[in-house]
User: What shape does this take?
Amino acid sequence: MAVNKAIPHYQFLREFPKSEAQSVYLVIGDEEFLKERVLNLIMKRFLTKEAMEFDYITLYGDECTGSDIVEQADTMPFIADTRVVVVRDIDMLKANQHDNLISYLNSPSYSTILIVTAIKLDARSKLYKAFQTNSSIIQCKTPYNAEALSRWIRDELRDKEVRIETSALQYLSSHIKLDYFTANNELEKVLLYVGKKNYISLEDVKECIAISSESNVFDLQNSIGKRNVKQSISIIEDFENVGDSAVMIVTMVSRYFLTLWKIHALREKDLSDNEIMENHLHDIYKLFRLDRIKAADNYSTLEIRNALSLMYDCDKKLKSISTNPKILITTLIYQICSK
Assistant: This one.
């Protein structure tokens, strides 16, 4: 049988919409952000919202057996044309459980899409060779230099129909950590900063990078989520130029609370926290989703509404009066976190 070569994520993302469906996809590599993007793209194509409850399941390599995977993959779809089975971290599956899975890979179900993720698999193993023969393999590697990061940023902005000045692109890609998750977060900050503009200048990027170099807005979000007043105020104190970044801080914290509100709304529909994390927080990196769930426990719906109201008022004051921005932000954080 022919051996399928692993293809880079960008090639897969470009070709997948027009490609023929495969019964098995292996998404492999150390870049978790890209793996999530590839995984979600595949799921979106083969799984409707209506079928999520009946024809979709996620298993974990360190918790399941080979028989568990085969049993789920051999189950016929209930309401959809295809059933989607996701197995995360297949590299954690015990070696003595490989044989059943290998047998399935050699003759996969025509009515199931099996999507498997892994950080690394031994290329000499029977399991990997079975994937090579019977699946589409998508490689998700961390960017190896700023140039690779620049290509990714340019592609992201092209999809959003936003142009970026060459010097701005070079500055952004060379001033952030070499991983796509960080790049995505920094790009989101820039896009929030420029608003409805469809062009990003070097000055825009420098403003947003300055915010990140002075402190970590995401650390601030997490400390607010824990209602840790002291730590939150300390983070604000570390900002040397709060006046330049105050509006951005309010914007990012507002987005954080909107996510908490969304969690409450989904809970009211009797969705479990696991289901919310797995299916409804795709804009949040998976390692941080549990933190959002825990933060939602710390704020009632009424408190979230009040916090958003306080942020709205603070934003207006920042744009209309001459009061020290650091005082306004510090007061805002204290009002939000205090019980």
Residues 242-268 form the longest helix (27 residues). Residues 322 and 328 are 10 Å apart (CA to CA).
